Amino acid sequence: MQRDRHRRSRRLILLCAGLFLLLLGTAAPASAHAALRTTDPADGTLLRTAPRHITLTFTESVGLLTDTFRVYDPTNHRLRTGPAEHAPGRSDTARVSLPGKLARGTYTVAWRVVSADSHPVSGALTFSVGTRTATAASPAPDDPENPATAALYNIARYLAYLCLALLLGTAAFVAYCRPPTAAPLRVPALAAAWTLLATTAALYLLRAPYEEGTAPALSLRSLTHTATTRPGGLLLARLALLLLAAAAVALLRARRRRLPRRTTLAVAGAVSLPLALTWTAADHASAGVQVPLAITAGTLHLLAMGTWLGGLAALLRTLPRTSPTTLARFSRLAFASVTVLVVTGVYQSWRGLGSWQALTDTTYGRTLLAKLAAVTALLLAAACSRTWTTRLTRAPRVAVARVPEPATVPSLPLPPERPTPPPPPPFHTLRRSVLAEAAVGVLVLALTTLLTSTVPGRAATDAARTGTPTTGIPTASVTTIPFDVGTPGGHGKVQITLDPGRVGRTSVQAVVYGPDGGLSTVPELRVTLTLPARHLGPLDTRVTDRGGYWSTDSFDLPLPGTWTMKATVRVSELDQVTVSAPVRVTR
Question: Directed axis angle between helix 147-172 and helix 183-212, to 10°?
């Protein structure tokens, strides 16, 4: 019976860990932490003269790559530009020099940088010199990440978080709670340590392909470049700390010495603090407002999280052999960890949100609400575990019994009986409570790591005020529709560009290509847009012939959604055709 309970406990722990990895391993990759604030020239701008530089300004400092900028001319050929650099004294900018002479037409710029919290950010913009022309350039795909690289990097990252929690919690449990035997914790601790070492090495090897958005590959140049970046340096520091800790443990085991409790706590703290810093110094805390205080709060939050959740795993592993003294110590340790988590969590939430409105209007805020709900459930489970722990560690009271007296002696008043306290609950009841607490804790840990992959509400709101999208996708929408009027030479295609392809004032350019793929002149072209979901339209764009292409600069898109774009092409006095295609309009 006891073995069955242990087997079920292990299966539940493995199930929770599997769900954690499944949730995080399939999560969308982090793609926009530093939000684009402004661009010079602005997206979709028509300029009289060619600019000398392209400058992007972000909400936080950014790192530059060897291929940060790709600029394409109106014929879809890549321009030779100078190296990417920061504007003087501005680490939150990225700038590139353009050639001295630029032809008239529309240029497309694709960019990719690394935000201060170590996540790559990418996007695209367009600008025109002298006149707007249609362009088929598509240098920024919908998914700027390589799927294999992103999946491997995310799995390694989340495994590292889980192993860190197990290591921190086990070390704190052994050092402070002093279980009667630590032998059952040796195997999981070693497994977590080796897994953390392997995932850290994998993160370092995948760092350059992750930043560039390329397939996994190894090269001496990429490894050397990674070592010069802040995320790469922190990963190397983490590797060094883990190797030093492994050497210290091996030395102590060789001497077979049992260190005093204070010494063990000091050694565990000396390793845990810098180890946690390798995470927080490359996360949201490293950018934004109050960076030193944010890194301090983030480090304490991470240590408290690992102490609590990892300690729960250690308690489950040793629960059948745990003494009441160990339970009492863990109860105090868990209460202190919860206090630190609440205080630092409130500060981090305020810093990340920036306003109450961001709590419901941003992805970061909605994820935070889900985490708060999970934390509430976790605190309730922890309260139940603390109640059972208190009953187990409480010394039983002895009831006062009545003494029988001879019948000839008058009865004397006796002190009132004290009720006998209920017996302490069995260990399997506490185990169920701790299992529930651990299961909810895994969910909290998953939501916490998802928050690190989400644009902070403060940055998203700041970018929204300037009208700059935070998604990092191209704002221009290009739609190509083939047509055939059924006569010889009466087929081709019409290419229609909405710049930008979002709600509000937009420009519409249309170019007609003939059967040979060259530009074709047609007597008449009409472009309309209809939104079937709202029964809106058709709205006539009123494009006019500009000598080789059709255009208008004053068309308003009132609502987002999937619109139906219809183009009526007349190739002669008698022959015309109407063709259509869906087009997505964003906010």
Answer: 150
pLDDT value of residue 140: 46
Q: Is 12 exposed, middle or buried (0-12, 13-18, 19+ CB in 10 A)?
A: middle
Peptide bond into 500 cis (omega under 30): yes
pTM more than 0.85? no
Cα Rg of the chain, angstroms: 32
CB-CB neighbours of 503 under 10 Å: 15
HEC secondary structure over 58-99: ECCCEECCCCCEEEECCCCCECCCCCCEEECCEEEEEEEECC
Its sign, for the CA torsion 240, 246, 252, 258, is positive
SS3 readout for 213-281: CCCCCCCHHHHHHHHHCHHHHHHHHHHHHHHHHHHHHHHHHHHCCCCCHHHHHHHHHHHHHHHHHHHHC
Nearest to 580 by CA among 490, 488, 480: 480
Distances (CA, A) of 437 to 189, 289, 390: 20, 34, 16
* Beta-strand pair 120-129/477-484: unpaired
Burial of residue 26 (number of CB atoms within 10 Å: 0-12, 13-18, 19+): exposed
CA atoms within a 13 Å half-sphere pointing along the CA-CB vector of 202: 18
Using one digit for the tens of pLDDT, what is the confidence trace for 29-79? 333 467 788 888 888 788 888 899 999 998 778 888 888 898 988 888 888
Residues 6+ apart with CB under 8 A from 477: 497, 498, 499, 500, 501, 583, 584, 585
Centroid of chain to Cα 251: 39
Rounded distance between C-alpha atoms, residue 344 and residue 294, angstroms: 9
What is the residue-averaged pLDDT of the chain? Answer: 76
pLDDT in tens, 467-489: 444 444 345 678 888 888 777 76
Non-local (6+) Cβ contacts of 252 within 8 A are: 259
State how far Cα 317 lies from the chain centre.
Answer: 31
HEC string of 13-67 equals: HHHHHHHHHHHHHCCCCCCCCCCEEEEECCCCEEECCCCCEEEEEECCCEECCCC
Contact indicator for 554, 505 with CB cutoff of 8 Å: yes
Q: Which of 512, 578, 577 lies closest to 550, judged by CA?
A: 512
Residue located via tokens 């059948």: 320
Quickly count helices (H) and strands (E) in the chain. Answer: 12, 18
Report how far residue 210's alpha carbon sits from residue 324's, in angstroms, rounded to the nearest whole number.
49
pLDDT in tens, 130-141: 887 765 544 444
Q: Residue 558's closest CA among 525, 577, 534?
A: 534
Do 538 and 82 meet the contact criterion of CB atoms below 8 Å apart?
no
Q: Report whether 135 contacts 72 (CB < 8 A).
A: yes
Burial class (CB in 10 A: 0-12, 13-18, 19+), 573: exposed
